[in-house]
User: What shape does this take?
Amino acid sequence: MSVAPTSPKQGVAREKATDAALAFAERSPEITSTRTITWQDPMPLARAAREMSGLEFLRAQITGELTPPPIHHLTGIRLVDVDQGRATHVLPCSPWLSTGFRTVQGGFTAMLAELSLAGAAFSTVEPGVAIAPLDLKINFLRPVLPDMRDLTAEAEVIHRGRSIAITSCRVTNADGKPVALATGSSMYLPGRPASLIGVEQLGSSDAEEAGA
Assistant: This one.
């Protein structure tokens, strides 16, 4: 996997934004917060997923047998329940995720829904089968406030064919009120590693064994 180099203009813009943020922090310490993130390389997850069914893999994350993915450490999102064809994730509504209007940015709500949609589909696969999300449609019903309480996304598979799974998801706030409804579809990829994370980094022999 290659990463496009940063252009000189992008580098200057990034430095200016960083300098401005640091200067503002010095001027306004009373409203300034900092956050340090520690996370683990997801490659061990990718390797474990090749040997486990989707349901086993997801349950191992809940029990702590497997480390959480990096996105958990960045956002606080976590899987709290899973069964065959069902998955539930929660996301703490941290000010870290808020916009200038003091609402949680809608993309994070969509991310929460998408993870549960994909989790529900992934819970149905056997070892050595990957899924590839194809689409996501979400309707936002009400604003989400950064009140540090959990958003909950409950997803289930509503149709499973030989190659496509259709899933639906309901996202509710801590008061039990719906804030979003989402649907999505995923494709089953037999013969692929159960996690596509880092396929190029597994090495040629691993990739051939996985059917990549």
